[in-house]
UniProtKB/TrEMBL annotation, chain A:
Organism: Streptomyces brasiliensis
Protein name: Aliphatic sulfonates import ATP-binding protein SsuB 2
Listed SUPFAM superfamilies: P-loop containing nucleoside triphosphate hydrolases
Family matches, as Gene3D superfamilies: P-loop containing nucleotide triphosphate hydrolases (3.40.50.300)
Residues spanning the signal sequence: none
TrEMBL record, chain B:
Chain ranges of the ABC transmembrane type-1 domain: 102-290
Transmembrane intervals: 56-73, 116-134, 146-166, 172-191, 232-255, 267-289
Subcellular location, record wording: Cell membrane
Protein source organism: Streptomyces brasiliensis
InterPro entries in the cross-refs: MetI-like (IPR000515), MetI-like_sf (IPR035906)
Keywords: Cell membrane, Membrane, Transmembrane, Transmembrane helix, Transport
BP GO terms, sorted: alkanesulfonate transmembrane transport
Topology within the bilayer: Multi-pass membrane protein
Protein name: ABC transmembrane type-1 domain-containing protein
SUPFAM superfamilies tied to this protein: MetI-like
Listed CDD domains: TM_PBP2 (cd06261)
């Protein structure tokens, strides 16, 4: 299936290598892509529930401005890791260093249904010009005209974009994405993925994307890490120039390796792979 | 806040627009206010007015039918020989209003209910909030409230007379205590029913305890709190009836028991109708409140 990336042809982003030097000309209000924070550093993270260890002695680094995708089978603790990094988890063991400004987008949009869209975007923010800031962030996700709508009137894709706007308005240095596209239909998902890639290229936060979708990881991430057996088992540098065509030979090869790493036989036909994928959607 | 009727929205509006690319590539049918046209071509303003009138008539029709049945029943003697007809009740009501008795007794009763609810409603809400927001408060408060809740509080009337004397205080206390329980239960359940995912996202957005309560927990619990308020008002009126049955010479309850002594069934019915109207009015009040406070809701409103 060819991907529609004509948008990127119009505004060519600088080609990005896996170990990126400071990105030239990150526009707008984004903080300097590096220097202001040291990215993410997780050491010896362990977390269990009811005596069952989910994560054990896990280490993870994310460089400033780096886009990391975290893949793993259902129940492997992907979301647990993300929640620990985001400080949403009560008491994990280990050391976790994250930048000051962290924003999270969840699988569900989690908008407050009783507050209008722009109020949702600025939830918890202080200072003046809240509405202006909200509209600016909504403009970046193409929804400036829905600022006064109730969340209940939005479509699934729109609501998820508002959630993205709510994250963006905080100018995060670290953006945590917990399967943010999993509940969207295929077309909407493609658009949302392109949107996230574009916004990341503009603002250069570090990103940790939890996903069960191998192609999504390969389209977006600089690096894909696999979570298996309670710790990170494998790591793949996605060295494909952006924008990334799905039929790039390196893409096909990496996809194969990732699927193998996830315990799926890439030659056993698409049916198997899809079954596995949909099975993982619930993780 | 304009609620666009769901069926009239033009299908041409695409939910998803390519972000950031603007309207240039959008379909030509996507001209901005695409909600104007209706399927039938009837001008948009005439249709809702007509349908709302029909709806209004439909709402009134049930009540009219009841009154008609009452009229018919007394005329045919189905309801016994002492049941007054609607016209007799109307006449008795007019007479009571003319003499000034009605206003006097009604004001006394309204005062009693008002005083009771003035303290009872905040007390129920506060207890519910305390228990809902703080586990320690719940642990202390919940067991006694659940135990008292199981007592029919109307059975406490004699006890209250012993405690608070035969005068107004015991009546007010009885009306005060009734609404506390439904409010407590509903506020507590409303708070416990708030989606934890919303609480989590609000926390991660940097909301403190106060902000979390004000912007997430209270609005989330509000629908349930309003249900509690409705029940509380109903119980308030119910308690009034019982409280005014004994040891008083004023209030519409006294009017009723006095009429019973003299077999003035028409006056008794005036009071009964008054109770019904007061109940309907207070319910209407809560509904208005609901409509304003829950404008965001897109619940199922009936087919």
């Amino acid at each position: 299936m060819p991907r529609l990336l004509s948008k990127h042809a119009a505004v060519p982003p600088p080609p990005v290598s896996a170990d990126r030097p400071s990105a030239p000309g990150a526009p707008g209000r984004a903080p300097a892509p590096d220097g202001t924070h040291n990215g993410v550093r997780v050491r010896g993270l362990s977390r269990g529930f009811d005596g069952r260890a989910v994560l054990e002695n896990l280490d993870l680094d994310i460089a400033p401005g780096e886009f990391v995708a975290l893949l793993g089978p259902s129940g492997s603790g992907k979301s647990t890791l993300l929640r620990a990094v985001g400080g949403l988890d009560g008491d994990p063991d280990g050391r976790i260093a994250v930048p000051e400004r962290v924003a999270t987008v969840f699988q569900e949009h989690r908008l407050l249904p009783w507050e209008r869209v722009w109020k949702n975007v600025t939830l918890g923010l202080g200072g003046g010009l809240l509405r202006e800031r909200a509209v600016a962030a909504l403009g970046e996700v193409g929804l400036a005209d829905r600022a006064d709508a109730w969340p209940g009137t939005l479509s699934g894709g729109e609501a998820q974009r508002v959630a993205l706007g709510r994250a963006l308005v905080r100018t995060p240095q670290l953006l945590l994405l917990d399967e943010p596209f999993a509940a969207l239909d295929a077309l909407t998902r493609l658009k949302a993925q392109q949107l996230v890639e574009r916004l990341w290229e503009q603002h250069r936060p570090s990103v940790l994307l939890v996903t069960h979708d191998v192609e999504e990881a390969l389209l977006l991430a600089d690096r894909a890490v696999l979570l298996g057996d309670r710790t990170l088992s494998q790591e793949f540098v996605v060295d494909i120039p952006r924008p990334r065509p799905l039929d790039h030979p390196r893409f096909v090869e990496l996809r194969r390796q990732l699927l193998l790493g996830l315990g799926v036989d890439p030659d056993a036909g698409t049916a198997t792979a899809q079954n596995t994928d949909s099975g993982k959607a619930s993780s | 806040m304009s609620l666009t009727p769901p069926s009239t929205a033009a299908p041409a509006v695409t939910a998803e627009r390519p972000a950031g690319t603007g309207q240039a590539v959008g379909s030509p049918a996507e001209s901005p206010p695409a909600g104007k046209a209706t399927k039938t071509g009837v001008p948009r303003t005439a249709l809702p007015r007509l349908s709302s009138l029909l709806r209004y008539l439909r709402r009134v029709s049930g009540l009219v039918a009841v009154v008609l049945l009452w009229w018919l029943g007394t005329g045919q003697g189905w309801l016994g020989s002492t049941t007054p007809s609607p016209s007799a009740v109307w006449n008795a009501g007019v007479e009571l209003v003319r003499s000034g008795d009605y206003a006097h007794h009604l004001l006394v009763s309204l005062g009693r209910v008002g005083k009771g609810l003035l303290f009872g409603i905040p007390l129920g809400i506060l207890l519910g909030l305390g228990a809902g927001l703080t586990k320690a408060v719940e642990d202390v408060v919940d067991a006694p409230i659940q135990a008292f809740r199981m007592l029919p509080h109307l059975a406490l009337a004699p006890v209250f007379i012993i405690w608070f004397g035969i005068g107004e205080t015991s009546k007010t206390m009885l009306i005060l205590i009734g609404p506390v329980f439904p409010l407590y239960i509903n506020v507590l359940h409303g708070i416990r029913g708030v989606d934890n995912k919303l609480v989590e996202v609000a926390r991660s957005c940097g909301l403190g305890r106060w902000g979390l309560t004000r912007r997430v927990i209270l609005p989330g619990a509000l629908p349930q709190i309003l249900v509690g308020l409705r029940q509380a008002l109903g119980i308030g009126w119910l308690t009034l009836v019982v409280a005014e049955q004994t040891a008083t010479t004023s209030g519409i309850g006294y009017l009723m028991s006095d009429a019973r002594e003299f077999l003035r069934t028409d006056v008794m019915f005036v009071v009964l109708v008054t109770y019904a109207l007061l109940g309907v009015l207070s319910d209407l009040l809560v509904r208005l409140l609901e409509r304003r406070a829950l404008a965001w809701r897109r619940g199922f409103a009936g087919a």
